[in-house]
Structures are given as C-alpha cells and as structure tokens.
C-alpha cells in the first residue's frame, strides 16, 4: 500500500503537470482505440476499489450540476465502478443509512466554501467537525506538505504555489487508515483556482484510480472540453 505522502505527491504532481500543460499549450493526450476498456485502469491503491470507497457518495459542490454529471459519467464509462451511486447533497434527506455505508464529498472553490459548506452541513450535521477541521487546519497542513515535497526534491523548486487542497477523512482515525478503518468517510476539497483543474485530479482519486491512467484510458476526460 502506498503511503499517504506518496498519494499526496501523485495528486500534487498531477495538478502541477496539468497546470504546466495548460500554460505551455501542450497537446492533450490522445485517447486509446478502446477508451472504455476497464483493463486500461491503473489503481493508486489496489485494495481501495473494493474496500475503501463507499458505494454511496453524497456530493456537495459549488459546481453541483457539473460535478454530479462528471462523477456519474465516470461511473458509467468505467465497467469496474458498477454499483457506485452519487447523490445530490443539496437535497435534504437525499440518503440516510447506517454509519459506514455512505461517504461524503465536499468540493468548492475558495470564496464559495461558506455557502456550500453551510448548505451541506444543514442536511448532514455529521460533516460539520470534518469541514471545520479542514478549513481551519487542513489547508495549512497541505501548504506545509507542499513545501516539504519541494525541499525533499520530489517537486521542482520552480513549481507554482499550491492551489489544490484535499483530504480524506476516516471514521475513527485522524491521519492514516488502519486495518479496522479502511473505508473513508468524507473527501473535503477546497481550491484556489477559477476552473476545475483540481477536480480533474480528485475525480479519479475518489475511487483510487491513478489520474494519468484515468485520462489515458479516456474515461475521466471531460467530453465537453
């Protein structure tokens, strides 16, 4: 199993590479001849597909319609993600279940987080301590982690300041999953961008799919681009 640091490095490198490609005008990767082939997918954490990502996910976002569409599109395109359900968290009582069988996704751009979070927490109070913790502590921790990756030589010194902040929360463990807490409870994602570049990375990693693999397989590429 890859360490959380390595996963963070993958996400940061993916976001950085996407930003550089956009700035330099690099051509988009060509999809393979069979873009729907599930065998083309590489998993960041192989055990995550069946054990870590809850089958029912409730989404709260300031781009709700777009993000809901793209999550559902990924599930539909990928044969290995059958059985997953993404629900609109803005709708009161969208889903209620026993603890541990549902996960939450909060995805918002800075400046919109207060309204997005308040609406979601109003419907799902169990999210309040998680989003409060992330906004108060998690973003700063991600900034520090980013600087540490530069100091360690994992990221180049000239890399632009971090704009994407995200963290998976587990039911009974604050930092790392144990054998008894493999299933994550919530993904909190707050970013500084004006577009969806951060979401482009967190979309596949929600299910443990390597971002580059998801793009090259043609299953997480936005059809509208």
Task: Report what the structure shows.
With 225 residues, this protein is of the alpha/beta class. It is built from seven helices and five strands; from the N terminus they run ααβαββααββαα. It has helices spanning 4-24, 48-51, 64-77, 113-123, 128-151, 197-205, 211-216, and strands at 56-61, 85-88, 102-109, 164-169, 186-191. A five-stranded mixed sheet has the order 2-1-3-5-4, sandwiched between helices. α3 (64-77) links the parallel β1 and β2. α1 (4-24) packs antiparallel against α6. The radius of gyration is 17 Å and the shape is globular. Mean pLDDT is 76; it is low at 1-7 and 12-33.
Span of the ends, CA to CA: 34 Å
Tally of individual helices? 7
Largest sheet: 5 strands, mixed
Strand content: 5-15%
Q: Name the strands of the widest sheet in spatial order.
A: 2-1-3-5-4
Output the helix-strand order.
Answer: HHEHEEHHEEHH
Q: Which ranges are low-confidence, i.e. pLDDT below 50, for 5 or more consecutive residues?
A: 1-7, 12-33
């Amino acid at each position: 199993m890859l360490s959380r640091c390595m996963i963070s490095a993958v996400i940061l490198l993916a976001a950085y590479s996407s930003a550089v490609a956009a700035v330099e005008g690099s051509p988009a990767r060509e999809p393979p001849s069979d873009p729907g082939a599930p065998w083309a997918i590489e998993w960041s954490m192989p055990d995550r597909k069946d054990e870590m990502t809850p089958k029912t996910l409730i989404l709260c976002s300031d781009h709700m319609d777009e993000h809901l569409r793209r999550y559902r599109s990924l599930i539909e395109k990928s044969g290995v993600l059958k059985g997953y359900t993404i629900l609109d968290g803005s709708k009161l009582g969208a889903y209620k279940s026993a603890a541990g069988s549902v996960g939450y996704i909060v995805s918002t751009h800075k400046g919109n987080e207060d309204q997005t979070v308040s609406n979601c927490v109003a419907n799902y109070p169990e999210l309040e301590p998680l989003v409060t913790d992330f906004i108060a502590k998690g973003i700063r921790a991600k900034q520090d982690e980013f600087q540490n990756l530069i100091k360690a030589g994992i990221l180049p010194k000239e890399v632009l300041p971090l704009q994407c902040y995200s963290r998976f929360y587990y039911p009974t463990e604050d930092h790392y999953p144990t054998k008894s807490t493999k299933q994550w409870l919530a993904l909190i994602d707050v970013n500084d961008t004006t577009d969806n570049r951060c979401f482009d990375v967190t979309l596949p990693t929600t299910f443990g799919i390597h971002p580059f693999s998801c793009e090259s397989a043609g299953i997480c590429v936005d059809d509208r681009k």
